[in-house]
Amino acid sequence: MPTQDRRTQRERREHAEAALISAAAELVVDTGVRSLTLARVGEKAGYSRGIVSHHFGSKQGLLDALARALQSGFVPGLDEQPPGLERLLALVGGYLRALGSRSVTGRAFLLLWAESMTSAELKPAFRDRDVGFRHDIAAEVAAGIADGAVRADADPADVAVAVVGQLRGIGMQYLLDPDAVDLDRLGDEVTDHWRRALAPDEPSAP
């Protein structure tokens, strides 16, 4: 039936795109960002270069899709929690633990993010993703202020910049020297830090 055919075609497209994104991430980790080409991605995924062009249009389109995919669903389970401090803390701890899993996804993201500092191809996608990341963190802080879990004088935008800077900085240290950075332990340490830093002041004793 036509409806079934359309569904099958969509599923094939989604499967191909996922395979190509996975191949691109593996190539970034194995050989570096600069060696990434549509032909090499297609070959690694078992497709032709033309298929890669069909799905992403260009190397820039592939890089944009890769940037989105690497940061989407990085910390599972967040949508099940209400907005506010606890969800922010789950994000912070979960982010570091996800990086510590030594997965291809985590390493590829860090490599691409570092490369985006000097790459005209990568900078727009990663800048936009960081804007979105800071916006999401600021929203959690604002929700925490509204429900009383976060001190009223905390500035959501400033906290967001500090959190992203801390997470990215730890990630870069891990990329340079994985054995020196225990991300599982740091997940707990950084979570505790932000819980204390954002907690409302205790009322003074009479």
Automatic annotation (TrEMBL):
Q: Any keyword Cell membrane?
A: no
InterPro entries documented for this protein: BetI_C (IPR039538), Homeodomain-like_sf (IPR009057), HTH-type_TetR-like_transc_reg (IPR050109), HTH_TetR (IPR001647), Tet_transcr_reg_TetR-rel_C_sf (IPR036271)
Q: Which residues bind DNA?
A: 37-56
Q: What terms describe the molecular function in GO for this protein?
A: DNA-binding transcription factor activity; transcription cis-regulatory region binding
State the UniProt keywords alphabetically: DNA-binding, Repressor, Transcription, Transcription regulation
Q: Residue limits of the HTH tetR-type domain?
A: 14-74
Read off the PANTHER family from this record. Answer: HTH-TYPE TRANSCRIPTIONAL REGULATOR BETI (PTHR30055:SF234), HTH-TYPE TRANSCRIPTIONAL REGULATOR RUTR (PTHR30055)
Name of this chain's protein: Transcriptional regulator, TetR family
| Record organism | Saccharopolyspora flava
